[in-house]
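Batch 3, record 17
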Amino acid sequence: MSRTAPSIGAAPSRVTRGLILGIIGALFAIPIIAMIEFSLRDGLAGGYTLSHWTSLVDPASVAKYRSLTTGLGNSLLLAVVTVGIVLLLLLPTMILVQLRFPRLRRVLEFICIIPITVPAIVLVVGLAPVYRFIGSIFGSSIWTLAFAYGITVLPYAYRTLASNLGALDAITLSEAARSLGAGWPSVLWRVLLPNLRRGILAASFISVAVVLGEYTIASLLSRQNLQTAILLISKSDPYVAVIFALLSLLLVFLLLLVIGKVGTRRPGARSSKPSSKPDLTQGVAS
Amino acid sequence: MTNPQGAAVVLTDVTKSFAGHRALDGVNLAVEPGEFIALLGPSGCGKTTALRALAGLENVDAGSIHIDGKDATDAPANKRDLGMVFQSYSLFPHMTAAENVEFGLRMRRVGAEDRRRRAAAALKMVGLDGHSDRYSHEQSGGQQQRVALARALVTEPRVLLLDEPLSALDAKVRVQLRDEIRRIQTELGITTIFVTHDQEEALAVADRVAVMRDGRIEQIGTPEELYRRPATPFVAQFVGLSNRVAGTVEGDTVLVLGQRLPLLEPSTTPDGPASVLIRPEDITLAAPDSSDAGLLRGRVLSTSFLGSLRRSQIQLADGTVLAVQHPVRDDPAPGAEVALALARVPVAVADTDTDTDTANVAVESSQS
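Prediction for the assembled complex:
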């Protein structure tokens, strides 16, 4: 092959890479910049002002933005309960299937992926009668919405946990722990969970991100969360609605940043030094 | 070799099936305290299943397992007080070497100071003192298996179980660690059961070797017994290399290559055609100009240098190809005419239609 011959599957040139990055970056950046610009506009008077931002911390505006703070509080509560469902229901199920019923792995994966293929509106139609029943038991408290969110976050949480679990030889590790005298609770708490830390954190953060951005289910089931509150407030104060939308985007961005940081850290990375250690594959200390 | 510090292990009629396949078919095995037993056999013969049943990692369908005289058949794995080293690297990735070794002690609620002292001693025993703060990803495969060995031994278990712990290592480290395991086992006098498919490994370290096939133990004996007096054709083929040559059984002898050789098991061998199993080292090279009428004549096809010895493929006049093991100083060139002498030692025979699925370890002679 000549030096200049094009090769299939070769990495794109620096210019192509820059172009792709620029287009995709613009796709994300333009709406965000537009939102920032809009939030700084001084209404009909023209020009720019920080007054919309400062009004958020103005005690006089507390009552005005109560629906927003309530929505934010509700969304945070829903995020916590949803993460609880993921960690207390999905994670133990996945570990159990991995260790004891590996043949059910495909079935579990199929079930967990289904919600991503069902539009939220369809999901709500199915959930409405269920929520009538739930309401008769638990009342119409906001936290019950977490049952529905537990379903919507399944695909994301499952993939994240499955990728971590798949990279771990959970069966051998649990057998090694048991042969060393550990009961199942110790196997779970001392061996498996510490090694699933990255997956657990990532699944939790993604669940939080999904819950904070959810609108359709809450709106159609007549519950108030951050997104429905933003829509509500946008009718009276579009600037603050955009500011809250920006802040929730920032929060999600920070969460994803933390996932990235946690995901690339390995135990002992802090202590790894240039190799001055002897390699015993080449010699046996006796 | 026995040592009172180890525990006796007895498996009685142990049976285990997986989805209709009988992995263990009435395994009986009695291991003396302090003994080093190797379970040897091809893939799928049930050796790992037997070890896992003993460890409590598989429930048995029938039969019983006694450890130190007590029935442990239904005891959970974490209550059996056994140490185990796995084939795949099984160190806990989030723990350092020392924390890994301390794990079993922590489960036994040993005090922190005592834990640290014993873990350090165990790491020193396997030659890894100074490596206590290394994580598994900072260690080579050999080092990880040493830590796993220290972790299994630090709790002073009644029995040490080794499930092909060397198979993932390169050849040099494998031999080093194999010898080290034997040294430590001898020092501690711990009853040890070692699963391997590598016959050289089994013969080199074990007091006794149990050869398994299709979920059963075919023969158990010292390495020399297995090699010199195999009880079945399968054992003869699996342990060591053998030439399979067509012959005819007549009474307590077999006529093969024009010579009459005594049979290893004449009482169980019916008269008639059979495949005779002749060890490469039982055939010697003789001077080609020798006039001895009892010698076989052939031509060298190829010769391989194996370090301490040489093995050559010799084709006889009737087309039979024999593998011959001889000293390195004898270096016949390919194509050279040579004479061969058969040692008059008892030989094993197999049915002519015996399945040759173990041909990977047997030297199959061929008729052209």
